[in-house]
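@channel sequence for tomorrow's demo:
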Amino acid sequence: MIIAAGLSPAWQQILEVHSLQTGEVNRCQSAKWCASGKVVNVGIALQHLGSASETLFPAGGYVKSLIASDLKQLNVPFHDLPQQNSTRICTTILDLSTHQTTELVENATSLSKEEVDTFSTEYMRRTSSAKVVVLTGSLPAGTPATIYQDLIAKTNCPVILDARGAELEAALKQAPFLVKPNHEELERTLSRSLSNTEELIKGMQELNQRGATWVVISQGKAALWASSADQVFRFTPPLAEVVNPIGCGDCLAAGIACGIEKGWAVPEAIRWGMGAAADNLTQLLPGRLSVTNVQSFFEQVKMEQIV
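C-alpha cells (generated this afternoon):
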C-alpha cells in the first residue's frame, strides 16, 4: 500500500487558446475541469499505474464534492477530511501556437489548528501499514512549517517528500528516504544559485549530508539528477510530445514510489518515475497515465553513474 498525503488539493481548470494575448479577450478552443493539486495528482497517477494506494487530503466548500466526484469516477481510493474554508481553484492556460503554459495558482486556503491535528491523526492511522508514503505539496496558512518533519518522525516506512524551503529544511532532520525539489526549489532552499553541474551536485549532496538518503532534482526537459551519500546519477529523459506539463513532477514521485514498493533499486525506480512523467506530458489532464506508454518511455530513459 502506498499513501499519498498532502494539504493543498485543487480543482483545476485547463483552457486551450490558439494564441494567448495578454490584455485582450481570448476565446478558448477547449475547457476542461478536473481534480488536481500535487497530492491528488500523485493519487491519480498511482491508481493508473496499478498500485494499491490511498490519497489523504482536506477539502471544503462546493469544490470538495467536485473533487470527490472526479476521483470516484477514476476509481481512486481517497479520504477527504472536512475543511471549513473552500478548496482553491487553479487555472492552466495552454497556448497552442507557442506551446507555452501559463498557470494562475490560487494559494491553498488556510487550515485551523484543529483541522491540522485531525489530518495528522488520520495520517498516522492510515500509514501504520503502508510500504511507502508520498508527502507532497505546499503548506496552507495556519500549518506549521514542521508538520512534514513531525509526520516523518512517526512514519515507519520510506517517505518520498516533495517540498521546498522551510518545510524541506525542517524535514531533513528526520532523514526522509527521498526528497525531490526541482532545480529552482533547491536553489531557494539553499538560498544560493546553482548555475553549473558542479554547484548542483554540491547542493544536492548538502541535502544528503543534512539527512536525505536520496535527492532527486528535476529540470524539465534537461537531465534529471539523483544523489545519495556516495553516488550521483544523471538521467536523460525520453522525447515526448508536449501537451500539458502540469503534474509531471507528481507523476515522477508516484512512479518512484511504485518502484520502491516493488523493491527495485532506487535508480530503476527513478527511471520508472521518469517514464510516468513523460507519459503525463503527452496528456491533457494530469495523472491519467497508461502503463503501456510508461513502460515504453521507461525503456528510453538513459542513465549514467557519475560518481
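heads up for whoever presents: The chain has a mean pLDDT of 94.
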